[in-house]
Amino acid sequence: MTGHNREEISEATRLHVLRGLRRGEIRTGIVSAIVNFGVFVDIGGVDGVISVAELTWKHVSHPSEIASVGDELSVEILDVDLDRQRVSLSLKALLPDPWQEFAATHTRGRTLSGLVTKVVPFGAFVRIADGIEGLLHNVELPEHAADAPDSIRREGDVLRVEILDMDPVRRRVALTLPGTPGPTSAGDAQPR
User: Fold this and answer.
1) Where does the record place the S1 motif domain (predicted)?
2) Which end of the chain offers a freer environment for a tag, N or C, measured as fewer CB atoms within 10 Å?
């Protein structure tokens, strides 16, 4: 490598390395950079990117919650674009899907505790299992709370909720408060 510019060597070998990558292949690499939209991983002379959506099954605010520069990661190659010289990677593809276990062990009507993770104008998202959030829609709140839903749920609150409806294919769960007769039926619910 003496006498050669690093960029020249990298450019000369880049296409060769890219051509050797295959979709579905598992590679080990080193985190080279973290940006708002994802994590760059050096997989043998080529940087691939793991988008935020492919980092984990859980919601994260920033990629730095999952990885740090210098970390060694095993990743799955999702796509190799030779024309644009880009490699898309996934860390999530190598992790167990929390929906498989959740759908097998939880049914409509089950009551459980959950953490309010986000309040939106139409309701609140409640984490009911690792990697699983459900929607507690405002219409599912008791009548006395209809005008002041924040009196029932705020971010960080722990609530007892009941599974109103579940759609594992779309990865959505509609929630209600136990014992609260809501005006919607399970078919009308808009689960997340």
Assistant:
1) 24-92, 109-178
2) N
Vertex 123: Cα angle to 121 and 124 (nearest 5): 115
Instruction: For the domain made up of 6-94, give the CATH fold.
Output: OB fold (Dihydrolipoamide Acetyltransferase, E2P) (2.40.50)
Structure confidence by residue, pLDDT tens digits, 10-41: 676 788 888 899 999 999 999 999 999 999 99
Q: What is the pTM of this model?
A: 0.69
107: left (phi over 0), alpha (psi -120 to 50) or beta: beta
Which residue type is seen at 155? E
Residue pLDDT, tens place only, 99-135: 988 999 999 999 999 999 988 888 899 999 988 999 9
Count of beta carbons in the 10 Å neighbourhood of residue 128 = 21
d(CA 160, CA 111): 7
Domain definitions of the chain by residue range: 6-94, 98-176
